[in-house]
């Protein structure tokens, strides 16, 4: 069992950074995980990365093409495999999850199995092997805020998840904190707002609209489109995770958000249509049941205690880069477009 020095104050930006030689990334063949693996190679080239990923519909080997990461195809619920991998690493960075709200409304079952049971399996391995565990979570655990209100979620906002997805993530967050308090497992937790950028599955809002336009389809806006999301570029999310890994305080939670001015879904779709030369060309479709109205993250703690700030402060520029990526990587998404859209069509979306 290793011991960890956590004696300095969390406000000490100059605390000796933790340095890792070996890292286990769960869900590293998915959107945020694959971008994270690429970032670790750039920023921490000494670190050997092993990825465990079940390669569900959302995972893709190609997302790791050209990286040095070793991909182990496997389930985070496979206790023996997980224990073997955790016994040979210095840190676990846990991204693996079922991640799409709309899917959780059709069938919550894999959300419970992966997000709750899978996290439990990893925590038990972390406990047994004395390994540091970073848990990647979401702003959705806090429920939603009123549109137009000045309020934001802070780390002490009470949990009030709305969907099976967000409830399963909330459950996993609670497990992580309990394993820290009851068993002394060294953990950190991050809760981030909506990500966008390269390699995001085309079921999600922004890549769905970009690929709709590229594929000659009409972009689809749920309901009135007045819901607000707090968009952050995936690299900014992952840079914050690196900051937490290197000098975050064990047992602490950090909110991650880019402090964008409130922008609703209708305005985002308008912007995408404009940037792609099809201004105003989108349609309203059936709303999401239980649709969360507004998310907004207060990331003051992360900024002040760990010195993080976002690199992408202009959504228009981030979207231009993302549109260019989907335009230049048609083969990455085109094979799945028809089936994603026919599933949505069967739901009136
Ligand atoms: P994603 O769906 O793109 O990727 C998830 C990955 O996990 C896939 O590669 C999938 O194959 C893998 N996976 C699923 N079940 C598994 C299992 N049982 N065992 C092993 N691997 C499994 O998701 P994402 O958008 O990259 O999200 C990653 C994490 O970040 C999730 O925990 C999510 O809750 C969190 N998060 C996402 C966002 C966002 O905007 N996308 C925002 C905040 C937090
Ligand atoms: O076609 C669409 N049209 C539309 O209007 C889709 C797919 C979505 N929407 C709306 C619903 C949401 O208000 O856009 C908003 C964003 O939808 P999603 O991309 O599905 O994201 P969201 O439900 O907000 O959750 C995301 O952010 C938090 C991620 O998928 C989660 O994994 C993360 O935890």
Automatic annotation (TrEMBL):
Protein origin, superkingdom: Bacteria
Record has Hydrolase as a keyword: no
Enzyme Commission no: 4.2.1.46
InterPro entries per UniProt: dTDP_Gluc_deHydtase (IPR005888), NAD(P)-bd_dom (IPR016040), NAD(P)-bd_dom_sf (IPR036291), Sc_DH/Rdtase_CS (IPR020904), SDR_fam (IPR002347)
Pfam families: GDP_Man_Dehyd
Cofactor: NAD(+)
Keywords of the record: Lyase, NAD
Catalytically driven reaction(s): dTDP-alpha-D-glucose = dTDP-4-dehydro-6-deoxy-alpha-D-glucose + H2O
Xref: SUPFAM superfamilies: NAD(P)-binding Rossmann-fold domains
Residue intervals passing through the bilayer: none
Domain NAD(P)-binding positions: 24-321
Family, as annotated: Belongs to the NAD(P)-dependent epimerase/dehydratase family. dTDP-glucose dehydratase subfamily.
PANTHER family: DTDP-D-GLUCOSE 4,6-DEHYDRATASE-RELATED
Stated name of the protein: dTDP-glucose 4,6-dehydratase
Source organism: Corynebacterium casei LMG S-19264
Lineage: Bacteria, Bacillati, Actinomycetota, Actinomycetes, Mycobacteriales
């Amino acid at each position: 069992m290793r011991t960890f020095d956590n004696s300095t104050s969390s406000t000490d930006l100059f605390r000796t950074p933790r340095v890792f030689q070996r890292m286990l990334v769960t869900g590293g063949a998915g959107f945020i995980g694959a971008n994270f693996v690429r970032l670790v190679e750039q920023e921490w080239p000494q670190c050997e990365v092993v990825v465990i990923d079940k390669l569900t519909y959302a995972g893709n080997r190609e997302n790791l093409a050209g990286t040095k990461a070793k991909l182990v195809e496997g389930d985070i619920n496979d206790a023996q495999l997980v224990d073997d991998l955790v016994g040979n690493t210095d840190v676990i960075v846990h991204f693996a999850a079922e991640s799409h709200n709309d899917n959780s409304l059709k069938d919550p079952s894999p959300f419970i199995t992966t997000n709750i049971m899978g996290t439990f399996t990893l925590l038990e391995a972390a406990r047994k092997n004395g390994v540091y565990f970073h848990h990647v979570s979401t702003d959705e655990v806090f429920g939603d805020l009123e549109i137009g209100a000045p309020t934001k979620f802070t780390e002490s906002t009470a949990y009030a998840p709305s969907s099976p997805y967000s409830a399963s993530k909330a459950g996993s967050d609670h497990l992580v904190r309990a394993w820290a308090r009851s068993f002394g497992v060294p953990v950190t937790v991050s809760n981030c707002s909506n990500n966008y950028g390269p390699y995001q599955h085309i079921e999600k809002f922004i890549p769905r609209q970009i690929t709709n336009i590229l594929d000659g389809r009409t972009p689809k806006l749920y309901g009135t489109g007045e819901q607000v999301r707090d968009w952050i570029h995936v690299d900014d999310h992952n840079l914050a995770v690196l900051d937490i890994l290197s000098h975050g305080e064990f047992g602490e939670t950090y909110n991650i958000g880019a402090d964008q001015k409130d922008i609703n879904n209708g305005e985002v779709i308008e912007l995408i249509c404009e940037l792609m030369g099809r201004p105003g060309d989108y349609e309203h479709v059936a709303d999401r049941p239980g649709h969360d109205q507004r998310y907004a993250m207060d990331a003051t703690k992360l900024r002040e205690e760990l010195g993080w700030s976002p690199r992408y402060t202009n959504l228009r520029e981030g979207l231009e880069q993302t549109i260019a990526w989907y335009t230049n990587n048609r083969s990455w998404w085109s094979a799945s477009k028809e089936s994603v859209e026919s599933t949505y069509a069967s739901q009136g979306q």
